[in-house]
Amino acid sequence: MRTRRQFLATTTSLTTVGLLAGCARSPDNTDERGAENTYTASIAPVGDVAFDGVPQRWVTSNGSWADMGVALGLDPPAAVTLTDRYHTHYYDDIPGVSVDDSDMVSLYQDGVNPERFYNLDADIHVIDPNFLEHRTENISQADIEDIGSRIAPFFGNCSYAHHYEWHDDYRYYSLLGALERLAAAFKRRDRYEAIRALHADAQSTLESVVPAPADCPATAVVWGVGDAPTEFYPYTIGGGTGFKHVRDLGVRDAVAASGVPDFHGSRTAIDAETLLDIDPEVLLLRGYEDKTAAEFQDAVVSPLQSHAAAGRVTAVENGDVYRGGGLYQGPITTLVLTERLAGDLYGYDGELFDRQRVADIVAGAI
């Protein structure tokens, strides 16, 4: 298999990644779509990657990075690991911002076939190579090395969750920290700075929304297994970007306080009786982001209310059961979900962020 890219240089702590990303250049917009000079961007665990042009065609692992690309004004990725977990409807209320995912490829189809990367022929793979090796099937370290050397480098970090045993010797990034790294790779520093300022404004607004710690509700975050769920995967509120909206709203972690093992470590579901033992004041259910609030009420909340054990959970009795938000969040989607959850938890009915400002940033009108 032949590569069309020329090796130049990179310094890296891994052997899985070590190539220059060579990309097509646009004579009309060299600052945004092409570069006159080689430049370097860095991210753990990959290290420094040299580029001889700004990447254009890209693939990524999940909706966190895909949303970062949207925020930076990039074209959508050609592929993500699972397209059904990239919830593009979060953009519906933001004027002029949308993602057509009809042609987007799922990298995971009964495993990840290395040949799929060759067919996609991307300029950059925004994927943590360690995640790809340890968490997906049908692909080996040798495959990853070949993809990085023959097609394009890897440039990603598994920041959405902080629980994997193999992730013990390199740093995680915050949501904005990861965005800053991606902005360096795509030479979109101006949009990064604008998004960072927007997030600072949102955090300032939250100061008047979130109660004192003692007054924040004891909240259980669980993944419901199907409609009318009777089994649940319990999550402690971790440090990854997938829990940012929950952390920012100050809730107390009912699962952690109960001593029930986190699903990431136990890989074990709990039943409704155990949920009753936890007895949270608020129940956040993940896995239902494809449903509207009304559909969620009909398919999930109503059956819980009718269940002999689940119906006695404080959150269910009081009507404090809500969609928990997607696991993969970027700088735009986390604002959408934080605003939604602030309304659910605290009755906040304002706008946490300026939607037109988001649209302007995405469009480059900074």
Please outline what is shown here:
The protein is α/β, with parallel strands linked by helices. It has helices at residues 30-33, 63-71, 114-120, 129-135, 141-150, 175-186, 189-206, 244-248, 254-258, 263-266, 272-278, 293-306, 314-317, 333-346, 355-363, and strands spanning 10-11, 39-43, 47-51, 58-60, 79-80, 105-106, 124-126, 218-224, 231-235, 252-253, 270-271, 282-286, 321-323.
Q: Please state the oligomeric state of the protein chains shown.
A: single chain
CATH topology of the largest domain: Rossmann fold
**Mind telling me the CATH superfamily name of the largest domain?**
Nitrogenase molybdenum iron protein domain
Overall 3D shape: globular
* N-to-C CA distance: 43 Å
The SSE order reads EHEEEHEEHEHHHHEEHEHHEHEHHEHH
Stretches with pLDDT under 50, minimum 5 residues: 1-22, 24-35
Number of strands: 13
- The value of Rg in angstroms is 21 Å
Determine the structural class based on helices, strands and strand pairing.
alpha/beta
Word description of this protein:
The chain is α/β, with parallel strands linked by helices and 366 residues long. The chain has two domains: 10-200, Nitrogenase molybdenum iron protein domain (Rossmann fold, 3-Layer(aba) Sandwich); 213-347, Rossmann fold, CATH 3.40.50. The chain is built from 15 helices and 13 strands. Strands 8, 9, 10, 11, 12 and 13 form a six-stranded mixed beta sheet that branches. A three-stranded antiparallel beta sheet has the order 1-3-2. A hairpin with a 6-residue loop joins strand 8 and strand 9. It starts with 9 loop residues before the first strand and ends with a helix. Mean pLDDT is 90; it is low at 1-22 and 24-35.
